[in-house]
Amino acid sequence: MSLFRQTLSSSKHIIAITGAGLSAASGIPTFRGAGGMWRKYDALMLATMAAFRDSPSRVWQFYHYRREMALKAQPNDAHMTLARFSIPHLRDKVAPGSTFTLITQNVDGLSTKAFELISSTQEMASAEEPHSTILEMHGRIFDVVCTGYNCRYREENRDSPICPALQGTEALVEAGAMEPDIPLSDLPRCRKCGELARPGVVWFGEVPHHMDEIFRLVDEADLCLVVGTSSTVHPAATLASKVKEHGGKVAVFNVDRSKRDEVADFLFLGPCEKTLPEAIGM
């Protein structure tokens, strides 16, 4: 722990790469961990454009289920620690003069919510104090995108349910029951042109957001915090290795061991809502 604290205090360009394990303690199931969602549902049936074309009803029911869970969830201590670490005058206490960017694979919005909660408290030096950037590389669960070729309108929508036909279907998803076949006309539509809308998340086979900026930050980083991710989804799975390749340090915070542990200079096993606040000291 003391060696990690020394490394943290001397680091100048810090990034955190977070995954589903960060939100597990908030009640958002992980996809690949024990009991994760992907053990119930095939990812290729739910998280690709081909799956959406084949059955927009099934895909929308699954994402409605995820939206409803995210709407009820609250940030846990790991989210709040990263939020505090994003505030310059608080971060200077443990990593003086450093920069920090949070790169998250999560789509639940809990990291942003944690930053908003911290910003509304007396922990901020002033209302104008900047905080670090959050890069949501896989998009946001509450964004809705038009599928119309000439529209592509994107908006945030936190309606619960997002449309009347989806109300109550989360109970069927949870039970693993055969889902109803909802007509296209009753699924979420674009508010601008009326075409069928899709969840505004990055699916398998699609290019994540902010990749040019992420690669630039990885090239500059001298410390990478890997929090709650099994490091199996590319390109996020390779980012810590790239930091290591140019001489940076890597600290991994996970419940279980993963195949990327070999790049870790520091390995903290256990729930990240406990290990991360203790390690960072915030």
UniProtKB/TrEMBL annotation:
Cellular localisation: Mitochondrion
Cofactor(s) it depends on: Zn(2+)
Reaction equations catalysed: N(6)-succinyl-L-lysyl-[protein] + NAD(+) + H2O = 2''-O-succinyl-ADP-D-ribose + nicotinamide + L-lysyl-[protein]; N(6)-malonyl-L-lysyl-[protein] + NAD(+) + H2O = 2''-O-malonyl-ADP-D-ribose + nicotinamide + L-lysyl-[protein]; N(6)-glutaryl-L-lysyl-[protein] + NAD(+) + H2O = 2''-O-glutaryl-ADP-D-ribose + nicotinamide + L-lysyl-[protein]
Record's keyword annotation contains Transferase: yes
Residues that bind substrate: Y63, R66
Transmembrane segments: none
Cofactor binding description: Binds 1 zinc ion per subunit.
Keywords carried by this UniProt record: Metal-binding, Mitochondrion, NAD, Transferase, Zinc
Residue positions binding NAD(+): 19-38, 105-108, 228-230, 254-256, 272
Deacetylase sirtuin-type domain location: 1-282
Chain positions recorded as Zn(2+) binding sites: C146, C151, C190, C193
Pfam family, one: SIR2
Molecular function in Gene Ontology: histone deacetylase activity, NAD-dependent; NAD+ binding; protein-glutaryllysine deglutarylase activity; protein-malonyllysine demalonylase activity; protein-succinyllysine desuccinylase activity; zinc ion binding
Record keyword Metal-binding present: yes
A GO cellular component annotation in the UniProt record: nucleus
Active site: residue positions: H138
Primary location class: mitochondrion
EC number: 2.3.1.-
Comment block on domains: In contrast to class I sirtuins, class III sirtuins have only weak deacetylase activity. Difference in substrate specificity is probably due to a larger hydrophobic pocket with 2 residues (Tyr-63 and Arg-66) that bind to malonylated and succinylated substrates and define the specificity.
Function text: NAD-dependent lysine demalonylase, desuccinylase and deglutarylase that specifically removes malonyl, succinyl and glutaryl groups on target proteins. Has weak NAD-dependent protein deacetylase activity; however this activity may not be physiologically relevant in vivo.
Similarity field: Belongs to the sirtuin family. Class III subfamily. Belongs to the sirtuin family. Class I subfamily.
HAMAP family tied to this protein: Sirtuin_ClassIII
Protein name as annotated: NAD-dependent protein deacylase
Organism: Grifola frondosa (Maitake)
